[in-house]
């Protein structure tokens, strides 16, 4: 009942800055649209069938950390990359291997777009759309987002075509392809797959743009917050390292009130 009240699902104006990337996904939508999307998406928040994937990626991360020869390791960067790997597989069902390919255009575009939007939110002189998108920083954001959208739209198009082929091939083949992967094992359905199935079963029309908004929202909300949480968790497990970080910050700011 609490969340059914329309006024309580309204979003602050600052969320408008995210529309260029997330459209009207769950994070940025409000009112009746938000309630509809939340009801549709909430059952898929826990993707338990990807536990094996998460374990494999964690093992790869540990191996990567052990291979590092330098005394100082940017743990946040590592956590950020592994979070992207996990979310790409669970959200879109694709493997980008960000951990071993940190310079991929898609990864850079995700990082730069996140930074640009957060930076814009904090600086009122960047709030005007006209001047912002005429400036180099605004033009760069649009270019980065086009890279992100290209991959998302490609995956959605492929899923649509796959579902069409399954319908044409007949019920038996369609059911078999939906439940089994190429090796005969149980097929893992990513967030996008589950969302498309829910749209069909519940007769909820979602356009490719709607699907893109939700997948991009999943990516945006998950990768950076996960990386921060894991980094802070590791810091909390090692008080001696935490103390070194404090000393470094204290030396850097030298008692400044900044």
From TrEMBL:
Location within or outside the cell: Endoplasmic reticulum membrane; Microsome membrane
Cofactor(s), by name: heme
GO MF annotation: an example: iron ion binding
Mode of membrane association: Peripheral membrane protein
Cellular component aspect of the GO annotation: endoplasmic reticulum membrane
InterPro entries from the UniProt entry: Cyt_P450, Cyt_P450_sf, Cytochrome_P450_Monoox
Domain of life: Eukaryota
Keywords attached to this entry: Endoplasmic reticulum, Heme, Iron, Membrane, Metal-binding, Microsome, Monooxygenase, Oxidoreductase
PANTHER family, alphabetized: CYTOCHROME P450 4C3-RELATED (PTHR24291:SF189), CYTOCHROME P450 FAMILY 4 (PTHR24291)
Family (UniProt): Belongs to the cytochrome P450 family.
Name of the protein: Cytochrome P450
Native source organism of the sequence: Bemisia tabaci
